[in-house]
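Quick one, probably user error.
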């Protein structure tokens, strides 16, 4: 069998400790970053009218509406979110001097 020793087809929930583990978040803190992130995610999902999982699938199989509208917006939003996160971290590390 060609894929006999591969981990690509194994389910993370069935992994044994010798091959890896399934990571479950343990943080139970609800802070403003979580609330704002959830709100932005929900607004984006609602405005697009597509759940991100099926939208990725539709983009991969070539649906024009998804390829031309949702997919570029997804990448722009991801880029802006990363830039915003970097900006916030820089502001926390080095507060402005007066």
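Nope, works fine. Designed sequence:
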């Amino acid at each position: 069998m060609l894929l006999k020793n591969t981990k690509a087809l194994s389910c993370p929930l069935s992994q044994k400790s010798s091959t890896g583990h399934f990571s479950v978040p343990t943080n139970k803190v609800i802070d403003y970053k979580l609330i704002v992130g959830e709100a932005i995610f929900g607004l984006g999902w609602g405005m697009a009218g597509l759940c991100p999982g099926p939208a990725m699938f539709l983009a991969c199989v070539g649906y024009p509406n998804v390829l031309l509208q949702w997919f570029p917006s997804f990448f722009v939003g991801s880029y802006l979110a990363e830039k915003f996160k970097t900006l916030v971290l820089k502001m926390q590390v080095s507060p402005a001097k007066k």
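The CA atoms of residues 2 and 9 lie 12 Å apart.
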